[in-house]
Amino acid sequence: MGKPFASVLIDTYNHERFIEEAVVSVLEQDFPASDREILVVDDGSTDRTPEIVRKFEPRVRLLRKENGGQASAFNAGIPECSGEIVAFLDGDDWWESRKLGVVVNEFATYPEIGTVGHGLYEVDEQGRRLFVNVPDRRYSCRFSNLQEARQFVELRSFLGTSRLAARRAVLVRVVPLPEALLVEADEFLATLGTAFSGCIVLEQPLTSYRLHSGNQFQFAEQDPRREQRRSASLDCLVNALPPLLSAAGVAPPIVESLALPNCIDSTRSRLALGRGWPWETVRVERKAYCNAYKDASFGYRLFHAAVLAVACITPPHLFYKARHWYSARHLARFRGYAGKPVPADSLVIRKAWSP
Fold this sequence. Notes:
With 355 residues, this protein is α/β, with parallel strands linked by helices.
């Protein structure tokens, strides 16, 4: 059998500084141009992004739409893809030259698998590599038991947009996505895709994921507008995913395990926006602690109890503002004097990049 035809779907919004590098990284793949197509969905950019993309026509097809967020971009683009395989790329990231060939070969080798992800490089705004982030080995997941569900929660970072590829036959079962997913639509796709047909996660880093000031999900400074977008998307994941997973035949304990991290993040985001009560802060921080650590020294448990005591009497938005200030200044190193917690077992290897 020959290799499947592949569609590359690039979603972009105001990425004039980065979009050319993203497109070129696809055009320069070690993969026959005759075996792939490239579609760029411009989600209502107000900068030069569309003008830059048009330089690559007809090798690249541009689809413009009003701004509506990531899910709306996927809803517009996926039906336009003709490939058996659809590989996703954000307009501010780029691929290694062997990415498409490696991923398509996995689909050809394992016809029963519907979704493939892989490791990544984290890079700064100028494209300099900071970290390499990979799974500790190759994984396959089908949500057949609780262990696989817990593994998937950690593997989600390797199934984000610029790492995600899926069979079109799986994607048509998922779309249309809820358009409340202004961000995090990739998690919705990857989770349901795995429920339908399983996933493979490769240990190779095949994507460079750019951390920059315009990122809509990962942002260092507190930004109420972006926090509101993130909160709405997390709420949508919490409410929309569990019933769909149940309908796909995923067992209730596994659905609950998959939902827990999003429930924690959603609650924290809502409280940071000033919607909630101190007792909710205490409850969610206790839940997050139990989920993140499997043991801790007596001193660290005292430190955590002190944090919860502060949360009891502090308005949630002030508590999370203080928490952000504490984290941004790397003050966590001082809590080491109280002892160290023992993290839950991790499948992820993240280390500083050295050539």
